[in-house]
């Protein structure tokens, strides 16, 4: 069953077209990986879904409702939550207050402070600390927890693993598995191809604002992915040429 559908959506910043006509369908309970290099249009796509950016053309449907013109806070109320690139925590507030700030729009569901602390025990241990003093991985967990506090049906994650150590990335991805087990649909934007494909049911790869490759992770070869990702092959011959 389709939860989210984008039909011919384009994204612009002034005259710059960051996203070409994009069609996308995400099923309930699915994990969609959105891959692509710097500037490919990944965050723009998330902005169009969270409502930070309105498409110049096309339509966004969520639970069969046209939400193209709906404001971001009303989309949170409908169950769409974003974990933004760079986390954007309130550095001077405690971890717990940061988590509570995510509950200002609170839907019914299983997520609460206790449930988030159970998901991320290392966050529970830091609940009274100011968010600014946490490590990058801890902050990322708080950002995910804050988004969960609204009890979303669709969770959008922008580069969760960026700049973090492999051991923390593993913890965060394990948590994502538990979040989907609660019935939440995930859209995972990543430059970390391996990690994203390990959890995704379906993947799309953006290059210069277009989908240049899509499919189930098991059907995509390394070569296809690197070609789609960088716009050229990374084989020995291309190395020799550079
Ligand atoms: N606020 C903005 N104003 C103007 N141009 C922007 C803005 N945000 C993004 N862009 C441009 O739009 C294009 C797509 O950017 P976007 O942030 O969506 O890429 P991305 O795939 O998320 O990249 P990254 O991996 O670096 O986060 C880029 O050319 C970028 O420079
Ligand atoms: Mg981005």
Gyration radius from CA atoms, angstroms: 18 Å
The fraction of residues assigned to DSSP E strands is 25-35%
CATH class: Alpha Beta
The major sheet is characterized as: 6 strands, mixed
What is the terminal separation in angstroms? 46 Å
Number of strands: 10
**What is the overall number of helices?**
10
Would you give an account of this structure?
This protein has about 240 residues and is an alpha/beta fold. The protein has a single domain (about 1-230), classed as Rossmann fold (3-Layer(aba) Sandwich), CATH 3.40.50.300. The chain has ten helices and ten strands. It has helices at about 40-50, 70-80, 95-100, 115-120, 120-125, 135-150, 165-180, 195-200, 220-230, 235-240; strands at about 1-15, 15-25, 30-35, 60, 65, 80-85, 155-160, 185-190, 200-205, 210-215. The chain has a six-stranded mixed β-sheet with strand order 6-7-8-3-9-10, with helices on both faces. The protein has a four-stranded antiparallel β-sheet with strand order 2-1-4-5, covered by helices on one side. Helix 3 (about 95-100) runs parallel beside helix 6 (about 135-150). The radius of gyration is 18 Å and the shape is globular. The structure holds adenosine-5'-triphosphate (ATP) and magnesium ion. Adenosine-5'-triphosphate binds near residues 13, 39, 40 and 85.
Short description:
With 242 residues, the protein is an alpha/beta fold. The chain has one domain (2-230): 3-Layer(aba) Sandwich (Rossmann fold), CATH 3.40.50.300. The chain is built from ten helices and ten strands.
């Amino acid at each position: 069953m389709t939860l989210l559908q984008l039909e011919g959506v384009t994204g612009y910043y002034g005259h710059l077209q960051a996203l070409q006509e994009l069609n996308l369908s995400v099923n309930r309970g699915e994990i969609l990986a959105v891959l692509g290099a710097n500037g490919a249009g990944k965050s723009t796509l998330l902005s169009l879904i969270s409502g930070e950016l309105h498409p110049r053309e096309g339509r966004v449907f969520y639970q069969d409702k046209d939400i193209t013109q709906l404001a971001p806070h009303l989309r949170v109320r409908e169950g769409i939550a974003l974990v933004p690139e760079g986390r954007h925590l309130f550095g001077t507030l405690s971890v717990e207050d940061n988590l509570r700030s995510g509950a200002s729009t609170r839907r019914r569901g299983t997520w609460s402070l206790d449930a988030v602390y159970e998901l991320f025990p290392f966050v529970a241990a830091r609940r009274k600390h100011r968010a600014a003093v946490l490590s990058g991985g801890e902050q990322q967990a708080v950002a995910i927890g804050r988004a969960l506090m609204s009890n979303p049906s669709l969770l959008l994650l922008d580069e969760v693993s960026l700049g973090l150590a492999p051991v923390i990335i593993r913890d965060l991805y394990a948590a994502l598995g538990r979040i989907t087990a609660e019935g939440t649909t995930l859209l995972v934007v990543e430059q970390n191809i391996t990690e994203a494909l390990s959890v995704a049911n379906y993947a799309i790869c953006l290059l210069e604002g277009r989908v240049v490759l899509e499919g189930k992770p098991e059907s995509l070869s390394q070569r296809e992915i690197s070609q789609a990702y960088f716009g050229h092959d990374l084989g020995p011959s291309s190395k020799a040429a550079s």
